Amino acid sequence: VAGSGSAAADVPPPPTGVATIASSTSSAEALPPPSPSPDVASAAAAACGQAPIAVLQAYFDAGGDANNCQAGTPLLYRAARCGEAERVGLLLQAGGQASLLVPGCDGNYPLHAAALAQAPACIARLVDAHRAADPRFDCLELKNACGETPVDSAIPHAPSLQALVGPQGDVPVSSTYNFIAGLYNEKGLPDKAVAMYQRSLEAGKAAPGDNHSDAATSCRNIGHIYLSKGENDKALDMYQKCLEIERKMFGDDHADVAASCKNVGYAYKAQGEYDKALAMFHKCLEIEEATLGEDHPEVATSLNNLGYLYDSHGDFDRALDLYRRSLYIVKSAWGNEHLDVATGYNNIGHVYHSKGEYVKALDMCQRCLQIEKAALGENHASVATSYANIGHVFKSKGEYDKALEMYQTSLEISKAAQGDDHPDVASCYSHFAGLYKYKGQYERALEMYQKSLEITKAALGDDHLDVATSYSKIAGVYDFLGDHLKALDVYQKCLHVVKAALGDSHPSVATCFNNIGFVHDSMGEYDQALEMYQRSLEIEVAALGHDHPDIATSYNNIACAYDSKGEHDKALEMYQRSLDIEKAALGEIHPDIAISYKNIGYLFRYRGEYEKAEDMLQKCLDILTVFFPEDHPEVHHVDIDIRALRQLIPSRQFG
């Protein structure tokens, strides 16, 4: 959505009914109309289609005569971003904790409340002034459609924006196309949105003057769409173009540049370029700390992003440090009961869960839940998610009855909050299925996955990627049940959906071939399995490069197939390739590397090379004990295997 400046460019329209634009009535006549000025006109026109309070924000920023309300603009901007104008107003009327909502709030509640109360009158005056100055400004009816009705009602008005475009127009052509693109994107029409953003870029090149801000906005938003579609290379290209434009506009040390560094990092992460993603996230953090200060909430967000990256790659101690720093900042900024604090507890809990420290994980998840219940009430979707997370920890602990209780609570809340046919309800049934599968109750797991699939299809359509995910899980259960032909059939359905949605060369297609290979492996059809694994590998190498961790996984699968065929030399070669890639991508100490050492160790054991097997399994154990406690099942099993091997080595039998 086009805005008066880069900060407002990504503000979405609020939900229906949150805030509306007043018509030109007596409430607008309480203040004398301002004289139209080019600055105000430009700001208002550029804000066309934004949330109404964001329009008022643009008016204030452009120097309108409501300067006494300038102090209210941070609050108004926050309200526009969150779509919570009514809630903000009620808080202010009660002299509530506005500091929980507004960074740097000065605590002057009456002034902020006055600013919010004047919004309808100021907007009405704004519209009147510019309608008088230029009849084409009547297309601000579009703004009403955006503020008061769903996007479906706004889209038919979009062509009327052309009335504002021309040699004397107030809105650049590029801004018009950006705005229309935003409407299409809100409606879930990403291809039409991309086409409009591209027209905005072309219009900006052809137009005189400086349209760099619109170009950056277009590139950024196209990048968002490509990333959501899994077209990571295209997303990266757009984000890098946006970053280049913003560096020319603002220099290297600007908040918008930091945000673009973050987006580039997301694209690298999606590509599996771990080191490049880290570099961009660190650059974002460096700029934010320099421009905003080390204790700013945006810094906390960047610390969370880095923490997530380290967490997902098994560097749990570093992830914990970053998550704790982030939590300290948000506590200092918002207090102990803010929802960002709940998010911090949830992130830390996830790390403890990954480390197998389940008691600590439960404590963090419970703290998160308590804050969410206090802030959002008992029947909110986020509360349901927190109950599910607690259930996941209980499942990992082997406390299945408690896990089942948590999943049941999550399901009941999801139904109450969103209805029986919402995708979140489908996720709840999937959680039940995962638990039953974990317990070996495959028939019940299959029943739950089927329920999840039915809801997902009804809610999202037969060709949605979540449907493909459900197919994949169902096929996995059939494989466990030994019904390999059904498993193959359902995996083929999954493959069909993924190809239709993402194309033939997407990494998710590689995953489908990989899963089909597993089934052939289970059936003893090792040549067919190798063919599927090889197709998966070719797609991944083309999409991700030779050094991505997923490539290591594919080599590992190929090794397993050769091992099953009895071709142990080829298997060892593939295992070693997998290990080399993992070391280069993840470092020497990582849980995935422990698994590779274990696989090689078992191969040596099968070949009767017991000393080599012991060496590999000991390396595996040394890594596992870095990440998991001694009583963790995996640590326990590898330790037993090492002890058994030592009984087979003459020199170790009495050692």
From TrEMBL:
Residues 1-39 are annotated as: Disordered. Coiled coil: none annotated. Residues 19-30 have a biased composition (Low complexity). PROSITE patterns: TPR, TPR_REGION. TPR repeats lie at residues 216-249, 258-291, 300-333, 342-375, 384-417, 426-459, 510-543, 552-585, 594-627. Keywords: Repeat, TPR repeat. This is UDP-N-acetylglucosamine--peptide N-acetylglucosaminyltransferase SPINDLY. It comes from Eutreptiella gymnastica. The lineage of its organism: Eukaryota, Discoba, Euglenozoa, Euglenida, Spirocuta.
